[in-house]
Structure formats: C-alpha cells, structure tokens
Amino acid sequence: MNRRSFVKLGTGLVAALTESGVPGPSAHASGGSAAEQRPSSCRFELENKTLHFTAGWCDVPDWSMALEAGSEPLQTRDAKPQLISEQPLCVEFYFAERQLRWKIVGETDKATDTLTLRSTIRNESPRAVALGKAFLLQADRLNGFCKQGDEVVYLPVSSGQGLNQVQKLDAKPATHGIAIQAFNQSQNKALQAGFVTFQRAKTVVEHIRQGDSLQLKAWCEFDGWELQPGASTPTETLILAIGESPHAQLEAWGERAALLSDPRPRVWEEEPHGWNGCSWVDAFNIERYEDFVLRNAKAIRQRLAGFKLDYVWVSIGNLKDGQPGDWLNWNDKNFPSGPDYLREQLQEFGFKWGLWCGAFMLSSKLRDKVEELKEAVFKQPDGKQPMVYIDGWAFGLDSPSEDFQNPIYALDPSHPRTLEYLRKVFQTYRDWGVRYYMVDFLSAGADTLQSAPHAKHHDKTLVSGPEVFQRGLQAIREACGDDTHLLASSGPTIHATGFVDAVRTGTDFGEGRPLTRAFETYPGTFTINAPGYFMNGPLLALSNQASSYYTHRRLYINNSGNLLAVDKPLPLNQARVFATVHAMSGGPTMLGDDIGSIDEERLRLIKQTLPRPKEVAFPVDLFTRKEQGCPRVFHRKIIKAWDSYDVVALYNLDANGSLNQSVALKPLGLDENRSYLVWEFWNSEYVGKVSGQLRAQVPPYSVKVFRLTEDTGRPTILGTDMHVLMGEMEIDRCVWDAGQKALHGRAIRPMGEKGSVFLYAPPKMAVANPKGFFLAQDTRDNSLIIRCPLQFEQGWAEWNVTFFDL
Question: Between 122 and which of 101, 251, 582, 788 could a Cys-Cys bridge form, CB atoms 3.0 to 4.6 Å apart?
Fold first, then answer.
C-alpha cells in the first residue's frame, strides 16, 4: 500500500502521529496568511471547570463536557475536578452521586495546531451504569474562524455512499456522523472538528454558525450500554484542528484514523480488476448467464490479451430465484453446470471468480430460512415482529410482482446464529473457490448506523452501532480468508475500516439492469444522457471520489467507479467521461461491457484506462468553488525516474451548456512564472504554451484531460494516445542526449498493441531521421509536433528521434 508506515502508540498520541509522518500543508494547500498567530494550548480553568483552547486565530473560551448516566445528564461543571497535569493536559472529573470518574487527556500538536482529546470513564459504584451520550465538546463560541459576510463552506466527514458535497455553513443547525471539515473562503481559514476513532460507539457532530462564531457539539453514543462495577471504558477520540489548508487537515485525519484503527487498515497492493458485463446484456432473461460468463472469459483473453484482468464477478444470478439469504441454494437455470464447473472453466482462462452477497439480508419469501433464523433477525421496536429492511426485492425475476410483496428482513450481527450462518456461507463459498465479493446492502447489519427503527441488538456486551456492525464483518472476514478481496457497498464506509479491502464510495455507476418492468431502465438495460442519474450518471461517483479522496489507501481502497461501461449507443463524449472517472480514481474496475461484441473503438477506450495507477486524483476546487456542487478540476502530479509532469482533468457534467474554465497553476504546485507545454488527451491536440493559468472550454457533458510539461527549451514528450495518464503507466524510459541531440525512450504495452508517443521540438529545430515519423509545424509558434507510431510486437517498443538546428 502506498501510504506511510503505521507505528505503535507510544507514551503520547502526538508523538506517535509525528513519528508516523502525518502530513502538513501540501502543494495543494490554500495559501494566504490567516490571522495573528498564537501558540496552541489547551488549559483547564479551575474556576469555571471548563477547558480553554487557543491556537493561531482560534479561541474556544468555555469548553465544557457532559455525560449521560441512565437518564441523568451529568455536567462536568457540576463535578469535582482534579487537575493531574498541565502538559499534557490531564484532568479528572468525579461525579460523587453516581460514583463515576471521567478522565480527560488533551494533547496539542503545535506543528499542526491540532488538539487530540481522549477520555476514559470508570464506574466506581457497586452497580452497572447504563451510559448514554458522552459529550466531549460543548462550545457555545468558537471565535476567530469567521465574521459576518464571510463565505464559509464545509464537507461532512461521513460514513456512507450518499451524495456528499461541500455545503454552505450557515445558521441552520446540522449534524453529521464523524467530523466536519470547514473552510472560510474569504479568509483562507480551515477548521476540522469531530472524531478520529469510530469503531465502537456511534459518533455525532453538530454545528451552527452564529454571527462571528460557531457553536459546536460532539458526542459519542453508548445507547444504554452498561459499564460494569469497577470497569472502565474509553470514549471515541476527538480532534480539533485549525489552519489554512482543508486538504492538509483531511489528509492528516486519514493518517490519524489509520494509525488508531483497530484492526489496522488492510493492505491490498494490486487493484483487483475484472469483469461483470451486465451493463448491456440481460443474462437473466435473454441469454443464459453461464454461457454469457464463459464466452466473455474467452473473449477477454483474446481481445484484451496481456491486460491484467483477474476476476469474474457473478451478481445475483447464482441464487435460486434471486432471493437474498438463500446463499447456498444454487440457481440451476442460470448456471446448470454447477459452481465447481464454473470455477474450473474460469481457472482455465486464468480467472478467479467472485460473487455478490447481501450478507445481512434475509428474504421473507424464504419461509424455512426465516423460521431457522427467526431469533437472529432485528425486531421492530416492540421486540416482536421482524424489522422490515426493504419493502420488496426487485431481483426475484421469476415473478416480480409477487416478490415485491415479500419484504426483506435484516440479520442481527451480534446474534450467535447470525455469525454461525455467515461463517457457514462464506466458508462454503471459499471451498467453491470464490476469492472476490461485493458485499452489498451492509446497512442491513449496521444497527443504529442505519435509519430503520428497531429493538435492541442481541448481545448487550456490545455497544450499539459500529461494534455490532463490525462483529458481523469480522465473521465474514475470517471465513472468506485473507486472500479474498472484500468490497463493501451500500452501508457504512469508514466504519468498515480494517475488515474490508475496498469500499464503494458512490452508487451503482456504470451498471445495467435486466429487461424487467421492475426497473427504471426498462425497456432498456442502461441509461444515457443523464449525468445525475443515481445508477450510471457520473455526478455522484465523481462527487464522492472527490469528497472521500483522503481515505484512499489510508483506510481502504476507494472504489468510486464500480463498472466501466463504454460501448455504443453510449455517446462518445459520455464514454470518455466514464473512462476518465475510472482512470483518475486510483481504484479497481469491473468491466461492464460485453467484451465478445464490444465495438473496436470502444474496446480501445477501455485499454486507455489500463493498467490502473494507485493514486487518486486530487480535487483541486473541492473547497474553493463559490457555488456548491461537483468539483470540476482534478489533478495528478506524476513523478517518474525519467521526468515529471502534471495531468489535469476538467469535467463538465452540464448536459446543456459549455464550460469556460481557468485553472491557476500555482495551486497545482507549478511555478506561475514558467511556461508549460500542454497536450490534450482525448483530442490528441497540442494546445500550446501556458503560464500562470490554463484556460479551457469543455463542451456539454464532456471531459478534457491535459498534460502539462515544463518547457525547458529542448525536445520532450508531450503525451501519448495509449493511456489517459499519458506516460505514467506505459513509458518506462526517456532520455535526452544533448551531445547527440537525440530523444529516445521506451514504452511497454501488451504484445500486439500499438499506439503513439507525441513529442515537442522548439522552433528552429528539425528531425534528422524523419522516416516513419509524422511531422507537423505549429504555425502559432513554429514549434514541431512529432508523432512516433509504436508497434508492440514483443511487449515493448522504442523510439529514437535525432534533431539538428536550423
């Protein structure tokens, strides 16, 4: 995993974080001086029994805390305090009537102006105490962040796949699950408040803008969990960070969360690329699923030979009647030869196979299974009838109108029968050779992390919410094995850290649906011309790629693309948008097209996204846009042994109007006083030289991808037509020989492929060996643009262009 090494917590959290290399402001940090700087400190005011935090421009004068014990609210203002130490701050509050002791430890990292607050609750009474909310932050005034008239925005640090975008921070109260990342656009001030641990108790952050200050509350919810006599429990860990760069604070949050996660985030080095194929083909009603899978496995090895595609993902079609919960009842209609035959055939083509599984779902149509597991399903608030998770299930394709009348129940992950069943299912799947899962509808087992009201979970030793949810994930993880790739979907995202390898950060982008009236796509299998459509419009996928970029390869692999479907009749401009979203995501891809019949032009478009780099593109305008919505500008700084350059993707998801956009170069880490050569990928166009800013016009529902190379006054690479990143994944060597006036290099692609490298030569230079090259003089500045065609007969191809001065 391309991430800083994890370290053990030592004597202090701040020391451990410093040792692990938590990042400061990067090249993308918002510039500008914020305000008069003061040294960061957190002290305890004995007189009014509150904390006082100051750092830089920030002042929180009256920071109080509170704890719910039973139905009684206990304010630290009413407790007996004991100041144990000032540096680091350690104060203990004793609630005599309930015999509870609450120890607070606050450590300030002065390098990043970040306060980390940890606490432990101890029950010194002879009776168990039911804990409710633990308010680690109650502040009526956070001063210095904003004043009247300032443009202030924030991004929720949230767990889930819903549309997540930067919003205006105003006087309307708002609550979010983990933290908020705020930014004052008018003053270049960044503020982060919330929790950096999240794996035991549900967390909430509430904020209100009040004139020149903010009101903040943050708490973790024990929901009646009983703290036994003589026992102690930690709360979740709170942080408050101030500075100038919201991006630096988000990335530091990701590093801290990874460091403190238990279990630690999983490391999956190679993205698991593969094929699903159901965007255009109905394998339930029109073509037999087994035939569809095997003919595509063969086609992939023929038409995409040499490209690393290792998995075939079968979704729902393996289940008898398509019913969730009937995981081991094989669908002989769709796959008449059985699971062993399917595994063996796929292995012959070099594939591992994967399945869809809504692990905590149970269809009420399965009456025998419902009876078997009736004690293990979540109950309605009265504790009697099963909780209805989904009113009906559209994928029971034999008789959909009847199936819609059968609700879906949800299994309680804290119940031993649920865990026993999950272990049985995933161990059986492992025996079948399954090594990939899209574990879906995880909100069914998320307990209080989801919205459906229900009675308490079974195992009362577990705290409601994250701890219950993760008990189920742990059982799945152990049964399916460490060599199996787990992709989590449709449920908590951040809360799955440590148990899954990847998380779907958006919705079903790129997917199709069977030709059944139950689905909105009917009478088609796919939708086009709708960028905001939840299933295969890119707006949500791209928005969530931007809003969660800081978790990628820190907590898990972000899967923001889902399926890559690009075949006709999807318009070419939209297919290019889809491909760019995938190529810039840093995450894995499942192909959604029928590879056996895909148009050759569109097949080449897929190839232009492979292989996949590991880094996610940086959302440049995430916090700086004056209007809220999906970011438009995404950046990758690419550093290779042979050179460095920058790639900027500029999206226009407006289906009706063109976009005129200027992109300042300084926030990209480029020198605004230098000139850069610009090449646009999709149009294979030399744009020209720019300095200070890049200006571009993007047609409706389109994307342009620019490569920026510093103009050094000598021949250099402009771009390629082989990969969207134009050199990172396909060029492994390029050398300028000043003595011979020659530019030579090598590219690597699968055998049989072909492509081009485009070179630039400054004015008054000509090619000495022109045979086989395509030469064009740009009349704007008399520079020379050279196309070097390459044939990859042995998996590599070289070019060598020599020049002379005119």
Answer: 101
